[in-house]
Amino acid sequence: MAGTGFSQQLHQKQTQNMVLAPQLRQSLKILQVAALDLRTVIQEELQGNPTLEELPMEGVSLEQEREDADSRSERDGDSVNGDSEGERREEMDFSKEFEILGKIDDDWRDYMSQAGGAQTHTSEDAERRQHFFDSLVSEISLQEHLMRQAELSDLDKDSMVAMQHLVGCLDDRGFLTQTLPDISLQSGVSLDAVQEAVRVLKTFDPHGIGSQNLGECLLAQLAAKGRAESLASRIIKHHIELLTRRRIPEIARKLGVPMDEIQVAIEEIGTLDPAPGRKYAADTNRVVVPDVSVDKDEDSWIVTLNSDYIPRLRISNTYREMIARGTLSKQERDYLRERMRSGKFLISSIEQRQQTIERISREIVRVQEDFFEHGVSHLKPLTMTQIADAVGVHETTVSRAIANKYMQTPHGVFEIKFFFTPGYQADSGASVSNKSVKEMIADLVALEDRSSPLSDQEIVSKLQEKGLKVARRTVAKYREELGIMPSNLRRDYK
Asked: In which band, very low, low, confident or very high, does the pLDDT at 88 lie, cut at 50, 70 and 90?
């Protein structure tokens, strides 16, 4: 009987990977966040970069700031940066790097054009494509955040399966909504594997995730701070019901602790997060600050960026002078130069962000001028590709630049994504956006005879009279999105 043979083979495989440099990731983040969030990002960079300093918000014009920055760059030269002119120019000119992320989309379009040839795209296709671009900038969910940590853990196969079920069983607070035996039955793995997954889950960020109740969640956060044996932990462990009813004297009496110490412990408990998973939930009640304002000045529309919430930065002269004196060690000098380069890149990224948003906004106003004059009913179909071609960037850059941004108009505050909409070609040759079609449907329903309301097919016929060919199922979808009931439920029986 011949023995089992073993052999080794060497295979060569060519793959393509896209790696984003930390500075490019920072640039994309700055481009994407709204003005209020951008201030937080900048403040974090200010705390970690000693060479950066913030200018007063008032009294310094943008033009003066740019002139000062240019004169400082010329004065400092290579003695501060230690770089050649070509390297500095390459470092600061990162605008083209934004388009790296669009390469995949270009390759996909090329492949589809070769595979399928010329194809006609409906308005529904355009809506699906719009949804794709919107999804590029969605914030990370709690489940994604936890699974990324799980992938870095040393869980075995069964425990990883259990972890996936555990993460799916968390509510918005981050609490488990099912018992461990139930999760074991549903996942098809042993209870020991589920318990191991729970143990690992409770070590993840944020602390308190995977708890089954409020007390367990708060105790986990105290333990993470090294306060597992504190008075606050004793109160939560033994008297949480009294705490929720604010029975402070009774807690003090039962624990034999003075009232002032109980009060200090309660203040410590107040710093804990009772719902650690909620920070990753979709924020549906945010303060909206317009990033762009559009106003009419005689016969032209003026686009103004809102920079009130964006700190103005510069490189500190103190550290420039320290390098220029030549008294620092090589390690200290290299560190300061690296921090200065990082600071300059941040300043350039902010300026690039503002310029990109302004150029995109001006092009939107140019295309949608009828909207600004007359309102939603005159909104035209518009795609990101059109704006990208006009501005000279990739459409994924447009997608990121308008994400979480709002525009103040004479008709109210609108999310900038509102102006990008597929549409229909009227018989007259004019383009009509789907938002305008929705408004037409709403107007038709508002004026209908309640004793004989319009059916979806009758609405289709009314739109055809206006020169618009819209499918009945599309009318039904738009009607549902508008919150309009079917005709049989709108009938007024008298």
From this structure: very low
Q: Which residues pair with 176 in a beta bridge?
A: 170
Q: What is the dihedral of CA 438, 434, 127, 28, to 10 degrees?
A: -100
CA-CA-CA-CA torsion sign (378, 383, 388, 389):
negative
pTM for this prediction: 0.50
Strand order in the sheet with 300-305: 300-305, 292-297, 406-409, 412-415
Which DSSP state fits 119?
-
Task: Check residues 82 and 332 and name the one with the higher pLDDT.
Answer: 332
Mean local confidence (pLDDT), 366-370: 88
Each domain of the chain, given as residue ranges in start order, spans: 142-280, 423-490
CA separation for the pair 140, 133 (Å, rounded): 16
Buried b (16+ CB within 10 A) or exposed e, 91-125: ebebbeebbbbbeeeeeeeeeeeeeeeeeeeebee
Q: Which ranges of 82-156 does DSSP label H, i.e. alpha helix?
A: 85-92, 103-116, 123-135, 142-151
Mean pLDDT over 104-108 rounds to 44
d(CA 33, CA 286): 14
Radius of gyration of the chain (CA): 30
For 423-490, which CATH superfamily applies?
Homeodomain-like (1.10.10.60)
State the amino acid at position 436 in one-letter form. Answer: S
State pLDDT tens for residues 280-326. 776 555 667 888 999 988 888 999 988 877 888 888 888 888 888 88
Q: How many CA atoms lie less than 13 Å away from 105 in the CB half-sphere?
A: 14
**List of residues 6+ apart from 328 with CB closer than 8 A:** 322, 336
What's the pLDDT band for 430 if we cut at 50, 70, 90? low
